[in-house]
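Structure (tokenized):
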């Protein structure tokens, strides 16, 4: 971090230099990512006190903390312009005028055991003066450049000292011209009142516990008539006032709330009151990837890039065990073997824990990385218990289990009338390999294709290796093959290749439980290409029922027999489906295919665009963050687009039988 003199900071502002720095005495920090007509300030965020006066202070660390405003800079840390105090308000209070900035007594307590010398006081007041020289230069620059600006002056207060209900957010507006800015005060109150804080009720008020009589608001209002200062107090619901313990979940909720509230409010103020040209809300956020984010992304990617769950849990003796099982008249219980793990689970999790994700300022992006890292903890636990009873428990924790509605939807598709029972001919695996190779010409990318005996499905994309694996020795129905190409190449390989083009590698390693979205998109491609026949529909339903049998306690053999005898699956097909579900010790992923399709169908029915779901291994849960990142030009829109999705946009044609079936799926 740079350390600059006050003169250097002011010169940077005058010359519109983008920078981030501490003042030379580290009394405050300023960040300007771009010059834009709104500022965030957290002048009481700090708690530092220099040694020569700390030894004279009669207050404990906790007593000082109690009256300071911890985490307030963190609440607004992602915005383009932020200035925050680093020193304790008990050294000098930036929200009081110079004559009263140094306390002798505060909140009924004597501050100093022995009086400060005059030189000590002057040293502290020089910091106070320097801060306001920078404030003056900053607001002067913004007003001259944009005509008006708005300052979000963020504080916190101790709500437990009040003997009546007090607001979570209080706006001090006593000194604000109601004719000039009154509507923006009310708009700010409305935005703050919309912040959701879990079980904590949000009561927001104007001039309830504080009136906006602080020096920062007064100084700016006195010197700059076209700048609105919104002195905003947050009650310390985000910590235990009596112990100093912080509540990270509530802090994050406040950060999320402030991000939405400030973006909404500042956008309207800037659009209506300033000369700054803006068309979208995201345009008022900084659009460059911060260095800490890139470092964290790189660190995470290098740690997990070779972590390929499906390639590890596929049995290496699959065909051998199939022969033994079928030869035993379905009485033998397969004993699957797996490749040894290439990671040390404990060491891997320790390295995950060392990723400093809290350094990501933008709370939406931070949450996406936190959730992704947590998902890898679950995946590691899954693999660490490969082949044991604990594997199923960890699979349930990560992928979940079929709900009652999922089972009802599976039974619904299973009992639909038969259709497309006639066969259109078959391809062998070599013909399918060639068809897959030809499909690349439509997309303009290359990938490796190989055949293998060691997969339970007919085809598999290995994302980390940009490879498609085709099952050896299997015949492929011609209609099914059309859908398989759309599924594996048009979706899975398209998202793999789009992820390669992203500056953030998180979209290559995959967002949490991206299976739901990715397989939903893949089945949608089969649906739009009209390649789903009765057998494929039954397979999707039976996958859900097989997982349900697994989670209900049925054995491999019992599940196989149910699929074979009750649902009339051919022995080999029933074996492969049962293996898909029981591999590793119990793998519940297959319950997500039908559920994923319904999720994507609902998404499309809401009029939402599929484009940004194709930028990598995404999840619908994070689509708002993904859309924002694309709009801010921090990540790229998809270079490759699923061919059948484009065709459907241009000429939507849906098979009426399939439409009837899929419309009947319950939410």
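Design, position by position:
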């Amino acid at each position: 971090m740079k350390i600059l003199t006050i003169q250097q900071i002011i010169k940077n502002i005058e010359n519109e230099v983008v920078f981030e720095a501490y003042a030379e005495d580290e009394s405050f920090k300023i960040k300007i990512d771009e010059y834009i007509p709104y500022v965030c300030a957290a002048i009481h965020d700090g708690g530092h006190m220099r040694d020569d006066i700390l030894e004279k202070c009669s207050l404990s660390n906790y007593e000082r903390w109690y009256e300071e405003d911890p985490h307030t800079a963190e609440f607004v840390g992602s915005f383009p312009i932020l200035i925050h105090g680093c020193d304790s308000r008990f050294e000098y209070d930036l929200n009081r005028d110079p004559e009263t900035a140094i306390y002798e007594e505060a909140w009924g307590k004597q501050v100093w055991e022995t009086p400060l010398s005059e030189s000590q006081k002057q040293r502290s007041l020089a910091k106070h003066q320097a801060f306001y020289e920078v404030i003056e230069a900053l607001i002067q620059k913004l007003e001259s450049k944009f005509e008006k600006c708005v300052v979000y002056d963020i504080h916190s207060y101790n709500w437990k000292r009040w003997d009546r209900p007090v607001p979570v957010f209080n706006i001090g507006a006593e000194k604000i011209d109601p004719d000039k800015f009154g509507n923006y005060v009310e708009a700010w109150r409305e935005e703050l009142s919309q912040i959701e804080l879990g079980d904590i009720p949000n009561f927001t008020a104007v001039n309830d516990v504080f009136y906006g009589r602080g020096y920062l608001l007064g100084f700016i209002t006195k010197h700059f008539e076209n700048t609105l200062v919104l002195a905003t107090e947050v009650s310390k619901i985000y910590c235990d006032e009596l112990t100093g313990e912080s509540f990270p979940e509530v802090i994050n909720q406040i950060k999320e709330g402030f991000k939405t509230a400030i973006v909404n409010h500042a956008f309207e103020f800037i659009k209506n009151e300033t000369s700054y040209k803006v068309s979208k809300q995201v345009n008022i956020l900084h659009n460059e990837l911060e260095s800490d984010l890139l470092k964290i992304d790189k660190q995470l990617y290098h740690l997990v890039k070779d972590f390929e769950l499906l390639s590890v849990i596929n049995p290496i003796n699959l065909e051998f065990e199939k022969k033994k099982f079928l030869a035993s008249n379905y009485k033998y219980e397969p004993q699957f073997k797996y490749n040894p793990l290439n990671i040390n689970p404990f060491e891997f999790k320790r390295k995950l824990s060392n990723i400093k994700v809290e350094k990501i300022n933008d709370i939406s992006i931070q949450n996406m990385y936190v959730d992704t890292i947590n998902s890898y903890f679950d995946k590691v636990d899954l693999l660490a218990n490969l082949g044991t009873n604990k594997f199923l428990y960890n699979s349930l924790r990560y992928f979940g289990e079929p709900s009652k509605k999922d089972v009802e939807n599976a039974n619904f598709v299973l009992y639909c009338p038969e259709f497309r029972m006639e066969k259109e001919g078959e391809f062998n695996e070599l013909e399918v390999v060639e068809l897959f190779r030809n499909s690349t010409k439509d997309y303009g990318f290359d990938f490796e294709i190989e055949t293998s005996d060691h997969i339970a499905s007919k085809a598999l994309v290995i994302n980390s290796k940009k490879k498609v694996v085709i099952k050896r020795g299997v015949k492929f129905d011609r209609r099914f093959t059309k859908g398989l190409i759309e599924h594996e190449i048009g979706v899975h390989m398209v998202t793999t290749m789009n992820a390669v083009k992203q500056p953030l590698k998180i979209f290559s390693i995959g967002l949490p439980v991206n299976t739901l979205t990715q397989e939903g998109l893949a089945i949608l491609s089969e649906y739009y290409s009209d390649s789903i026949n009765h057998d494929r529909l039954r397979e999707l339903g039976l996958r859900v029922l097989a997982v349900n049998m697994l989670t209900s306690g049925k054995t491999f053999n019992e599940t196989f027999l149910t699929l074979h005898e009750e649902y009339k699956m051919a022995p080999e097909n029933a074996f492969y489906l049962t293996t898909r579900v029981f591999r590793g010790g119990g793998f519940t992923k297959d319950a997500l295919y039908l559920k994923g399709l319904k999720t994507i169908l609902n998404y499309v029915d809401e009029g939402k665009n599929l484009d940004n779901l194709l930028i990598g291994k995404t999840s619908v849960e994070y689509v708002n963050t993904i859309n924002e990142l694309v709009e801010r030009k921090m990540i790229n829109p998809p270079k490759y687009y699923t061919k059948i999705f484009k065709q459907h946009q241009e000429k939507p044609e849906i098979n009426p039988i399939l439409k009837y079936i899929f419309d009947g799926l319950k939410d």
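Reviewer-requested clarification: The longest strand covers residues 149-157. Residues 118-146 form the longest helix (29 residues).
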